[in-house]
């Protein structure tokens, strides 16, 4: 059986290509592995048959690049969802549109069994809750594309941490480039994924600086910006988060300090290091059970085919969801908490209550 896939939003992460990652001359003309279409393209058992976008020029360019016939190109998601029977729908629109598009897909006549939604899950915690509730009601698997979860090395690292290589984690320092929603949701999701934890209290800082309009050619003003703060996790771990710097000078890194050892993970430099605590001295060793350091060129790009393969496994009933909407809300509520904390000049307890769940942070 070959499953049928459709995409809402013919933008960069869908398969068009992204400035900064790809040459401008190649955008919309080459097939890029690090994309939803690229993931489907490399996965047996699923075929990309339809795409929808409100921009007809972009729609046709995307369709030509990915060999989607004209009958499978739809102006607007409603037309695609009304005319196609789909097993999986990718939602690749800006995050402030995710709720509307995920809910529309889950409740549509297309009747998908899975929705692969880009990160961050939504613009507000309330919207994310609506998405997860509707998907549960319609028996639709909601898979959020926090792509690090779909890399073998991160999965190996999580298993190693669960097996106690650092003991009880006490402190974490995390850094990444701005902005919080568009980029830093990755590092925050990685933090809560590796520890299987949830934030309990946050104190935040927002610097108001945003690179997305220039980097992505955005035409709408958004509230997403650089920022960071302090996070107390429900397992007692204290984390500092700095996502204030621009792409050119940024480095995605996490440092874990625990009772039995420490980890340094830098994805931009491809440097993963581990020290075990022996008689009061940190001694550097290879990370147990982890096959080398992570890289953007290999691991990040392979994450998309891995995610598409995982969705096929979900559709076959052979797997449990690696990245459900309920998990994606953990990073979102930290970001929203940073904004609320900065605005109110106070600590914010999580999970958020209404009306704070309705605070929207719009992003490209």
The helix fraction, in percent, is: 25-40%
What's the main sheet like? Answer: 9 strands, mixed
Assess the beta-strand content as a share of residues.
Answer: 15-25%
Poorly predicted parts:
none
User: What's the helix count?
Assistant: 11
How would you describe what is shown here?
- With 364 residues, the chain is α/β, with parallel strands linked by helices.
- It contains eleven helices and 15 strands.
- It has helices spanning 12-16, 36-41, 56-65, 77-83, 98-106, 125-137, 152-162, 180-195, 212-216, 296-316, 325-344; strands at 3-8, 46-53, 73-75, 88-91, 114-118, 141-145, 169-177, 199-206, 227-233, 238-245, 253-258, 261-266, 271-278, 281-285, 348-349.
- Helix 5 (98-106) runs parallel beside helix 6 and helix 8 (180-195) packs across helix 11 (325-344).
- The chain is globular, with a radius of gyration of 20 Å.
């Amino acid at each position: 059986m070959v499953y049928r896939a459709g995409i809402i939003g013919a933008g960069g992460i869908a398969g068009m290509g992204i400035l900064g990652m790809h040459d401008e001359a190649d955008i919309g003309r080459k097939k890029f592995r690090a994309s939803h279409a690229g993931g489907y393209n490399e996965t047996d058992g699923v075929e990309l048959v339809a795409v929808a976008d409100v921009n007809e020029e972009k729609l046709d360019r995307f369709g030509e690049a990915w060999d989607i016939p004209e009958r499978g190109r739809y102006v607007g998601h409603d037309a695609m969802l009304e005319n196609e029977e789909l097993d999986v729908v990718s939602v690749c629109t800006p995050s402030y549109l995710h709720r509307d598009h995920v809910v529309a897909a889950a409740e549509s006549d297309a009747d998908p069994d899975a929705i692969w939604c880009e990160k961050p899950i939504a613009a507000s915690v309330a919207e994310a809750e609506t998405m997860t509730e509707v998907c549960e009601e319609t028996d639709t698997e909601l898979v959020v594309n926090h792509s690090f979860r779909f890399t073998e090395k991160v999965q190996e690292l999580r298993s190693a941490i669960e097996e106690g290589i650092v003991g009880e984690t006490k402190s974490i320092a995390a850094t990444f480039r701005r902005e919080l929603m568009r980029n830093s949701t990755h590092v925050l999701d990685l933090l809560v994924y590796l520890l299987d934890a949830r934030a309990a209290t946050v104190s935040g800082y927002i610097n108001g600086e945003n690179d997305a309009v220039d980097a992505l050619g955005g035409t709408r003003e958004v509230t997403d910006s650089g920022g960071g703060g302090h996070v107390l996790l429900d397992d007692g771990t204290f984390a500092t988060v700095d996502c204030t710097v621009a792409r050119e000078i940024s480095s995605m890194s996490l440092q874990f300090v625990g009772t039995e050892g420490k980890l340094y993970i830098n994805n931009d430099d491809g440097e993963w290091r581990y020290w075990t605590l022996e008689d009061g001295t940190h001694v550097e060793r290879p990370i147990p059970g982890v096959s080398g350091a992570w890289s953007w060129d290999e691991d990040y790009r392979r994450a998309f085919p891995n995610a598409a393969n995982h969705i096929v496994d979900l559709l076959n009933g052979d797997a449990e969801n690696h990245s459900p909407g309920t998990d994606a809300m953990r990073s979102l509520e930290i970001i929203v908490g940073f904004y609320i904390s900065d605005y109110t000049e106070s600590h914010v307890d999580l999970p958020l209550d209404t009306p704070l769940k309705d605070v929207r942070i719009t992003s490209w």
